[in-house]
Design a protein that fits this description.
The chain is mainly α. It contains three helices and no strands. It starts with a helix and ends in an 11-residue tail after the last helix.
Length: about 160
């Protein structure tokens, strides 16, 4: 029975590794979208939704892994030699999952920096447009005053 649970845990880790690979690919797309100007927020949101679903799956797998481990940990600790081979496989898969998790964190940090830079650039562009609009409006108002001559300054002699 315990061997079946261990196999479930191995399968869970295999699925997690596949999902982490998918997240890494999505992170690459996310970086590309956040690096392009003008920033496409709709496309970015779609990518975030897709990634959110994968993260939910990973969380579900982690909860199942933990609950399964809680069921069998006493038996594994009681007879470690009996399950040694399977435990070594589990340990290797956990190492791989942790390594990929670290890679994902690095990608996330890079994506956050890219998004912040993109948002900052968009803000600067909007501010520049506002300034340009105000300058044009001031010029227009000034030019209207030049062409408008007050009646008291006009010569009434003919």
């Amino acid at each position: 029975m315990t061997e079946g649970y261990i196999q479930i845990m191995i399968d869970s880790l295999d699925k997690k590794l596949v999902l982490l690979d998918k997240i890494m690919e999505i992170n690459k797309r996310q970086y590309e979208v956040s690096s392009v100007q003008p920033f496409d927020s709709q496309k970015y949101d779609e990518i975030m939704d897709e990634k959110g679903k994968l993260i939910d799956e990973i969380n579900s797998l982690d909860e199942g892994f933990t609950s399964t481990y809680d069921i069998i940990k006493d038996e594994i600790n009681a007879e470690p030699a009996k399950y040694r081979d399977k435990v070594l496989i589990l340990q290797e898969l956990v190492r791989k999952a942790v390594d990929k998790g670290v890679e994902v964190e690095v990608q996330e940090k890079r994506n956050r920096n890219s998004l912040e830079a993109s948002i900052s650039m968009t803000r600067k562009e909007l501010q520049q447009k506002r300034i340009s609009r105000n300058v044009a409006l001031q010029y227009y108002k000034s030019s209207q005053k030049i062409n408008n001559v007050d009646p008291q300054l006009m010569d009434k002699k003919k």
